[in-house]
Design brief:
Elements (H helix, E strand, L loop, with lengths): L2 H17 L1 E9 L5 H14 L10 H4 L3 E6 L12 H9 L13 E9 L4 H6 L3 E9 L15 H12 L2 H15 L8 H21 L8 H4 L25 H26 L4 E6 L1 H7 L1 H18 L6 H6 L5 E6 L10 H17 L7 E6 L6 E8 L2 E9 L6 E4 L11 H6 L23 H9 L5
Parallel strand pairs: 1-4, 1-5, 5-6, 6-7
Antiparallel strand pairs: 2-3, 3-4, 8-9, 9-10
Helix pairs in contact: 7-8, 11-12, 12-14
The structure holds guanosine-5'-triphosphate and magnesium ion.
């Protein structure tokens, strides 16, 4: 072995230990925003997508330096593993279907190998590695974080302010009547269960009939491993009932504090501390479909989330976990449900939705970018001739009917629309089934290469 080879070998050994780097990527979004689809696609792209034509804006692939990614086997055996293979199976079956909504947290670690672009590292190391850690969880759990800033009374008051809004009022009245006729001295198991069931029923009704986004506590809808835990017998008492120091109020306050201490804090400490990078996914199109109230509530929910993630000494996460996120990607998901020339408007709409929360947050200190993307493409884009004119369109398979459709789904407003616009022009963006694709090809996407470049590009130099 020559002295040069010897140095190279020594350096490689040292380099593998000292330079192997680690990145924890947080994928954030409300239920249905597309987190599971995003992680599945990201893993698929990084393990199969080394073809430059498939990821044209991902520099490490474009420059031929990407050596591939594989699922790491260093994951603690006690951690639930992200069901990547099962998700791919759903997407590749005939007909292709979407993976189901997530019911618990799970993690996946990836090892990415690449050749360094330049500098001393490229001379002494044949290859470099980056460890990527990804976590998935039900979106419903994200909205628990703001509860840490409230006590039970404040939370109950907040809930009833929310329930007074026109799109929720009628549904909430039944539960309000039930509470009004409740004996506040009765803290029996049966009473607590009966009222919790009624509250859970209300949350389901809100979600299905009123297209709402804010549902707390999240574990009531998606309990995960906590199904049956006594502290999940939790619902907001009426504002008038909060003024009397009743046994029921005391019991519910106790459940609330246990929920904050034993569920919310550990969950966020485990999953949101030490995040290096973050993706915030927002499904703007479904909210537009659901109407003015839904858009407003989406904005409110995003505001609450961003407030919770606000960094610096004043923020709750800052105080608890000292996060160090230095790059945030804001992404309007499912962009393949509209024609490509609408993507700009979709990005502007997303920026408008997030404008207030971002202004008041410390996200300003992190590098951020906004884009419209589709993690897993469900349509192909093209043009049709109509009245002698070429018009943009998309083609795909309708999720509900299974029918093939070719359509122009409509324009995306570049600004937050007002009620008048919704009255004049209801939005009807379609929901489509994933495109059929063969196993060994990377999943079709829209701008995942841009997302990968923004999130990982500098770490793969
Ligand atoms: N067209 C299209 N639809 C998508 C895409 N990603 C997600 N969807 C649709 O959105 C639904 C929800 O996506 P998920 O990835 O399960 O959302 P999630 O954020 O993980 O939701 P929870 O697990 O409930 O928190 C899917 O079932 C699809 O119908 C995409 O890239 N393109
Ligand atoms: Mg999910």
């Amino acid at each position: 072995m020559s002295w040069l080879e010897s140095i190279q070998y020594q350096s490689q050994q040292w380099g593998q230990r000292a330079l192997d780097r680690h990145l924890r990527l947080g994928v954030t979004g409300l239920s249905g925003a597309g987190k599971t689809a995003f992680i599945t696609s990201l893993v698929h792209q990084l393990t199969l997508g080394d073809q430059p034509e498939h990821l044209p804006f991902f520099a490490v692939v474009q420059q031929g330096r990407y050596l591939g990614g594989r699922l790491a086997n260093n994951q603690p055996l006690a951690f639930p593993r992200f069901p990547y293979e099962q998700n791919v199976q759903y997407l590749q079956q005939q007909p292709a279907t979407w993976p189901p909504s997530t019911a618990g947290w799970s993690q996946l670690n990836l090892t990415l190998r690449y050749k360094s672009a330049a500098g001393w590292r490229s001379k002494i190391q044949q290859r470099s590695e980056l460890q990527l850690e990804l976590v998935d969880y039900p979106g419903e759990w994200l909205l628990d974080l703001p509860m840490l800033q409230q006590d039970y009374q404040q939370w109950s008051t907040f809930c009833w302010t929310l329930f007074e809004q026109p799109h929720r009022q009628a549904e909430a009245q039944v539960f309000a009547d039930l509470l009004a006729n409740t004996d506040l001295n009765d803290v029996s198991e049966l009473q607590l269960q009966r009222l919790t069931d009624a509250y859970l029923n209300l949350l389901h009704t809100f979600r299905e009939n009123a297209a709402t986004f804010l549902h707390q506590p999240g574990r009531l809808l998606v309990p995960g491993e906590l199904a049956g835990a006594p502290m999940l017998k939790l619902f907001p008492l009426l504002p008038a009932q909060l003024k009397q120091d009743s046994p029921l109020l005391q019991q519910l306050s106790e459940h609330y504090h246990s929920y904050c201490d034993y569920v919310i804090k550990p969950f966020y400490r485990q999953h949101f501390s030490r995040l290096d990078r973050q993706v915030v996914l927002v499904d703007c199109l479904s909210a537009l479909n659901a109407g003015f109230a839904a858009i407003q509530e989406l904005q409110q929910a995003l505001g609450l989330i961003m407030q919770s993630f606000r960094y610096g000494p004043a923020s709750i996460l800052g105080r608890l976990f000292k996060p160090q996120i230095n790059k945030v990607l804001f992404a309007a998901s499912k962009a393949d449900h509209v024609t490509p020339e609408q993507h700009k408007a979709l990005t502007l709409l997303l920026q408008q939705l997030l404008q207030q929360p971002i202004k008041h947050s410390h996200y300003a200190s992190a590098k951020s970018e906004a884009m419209a993307l589709a993690a897993i493409r469900a349509s192909s884009a093209g043009f049709v001739q109509h009245a002698g004119q070429k018009s943009p369109c998309i083609s795909g398979v309708e999720l509900d009917s299974g029918n093939k459709v070719t359509l122009f789904p409509g324009e995306v407003p570049a600004k937050l629309p007002d009620t008048a616009l919704f009255n004049r022009h209801p939005f009807q963006f379609p929901a489509l089934a994933p495109l059929q694709h063969s196993g060994q090809q990377p999943m079709p996407h829209v701008r995942m290469d841009h997302a990968l470049e923004f999130l990982l590009g500098d770490k793969l130099q």
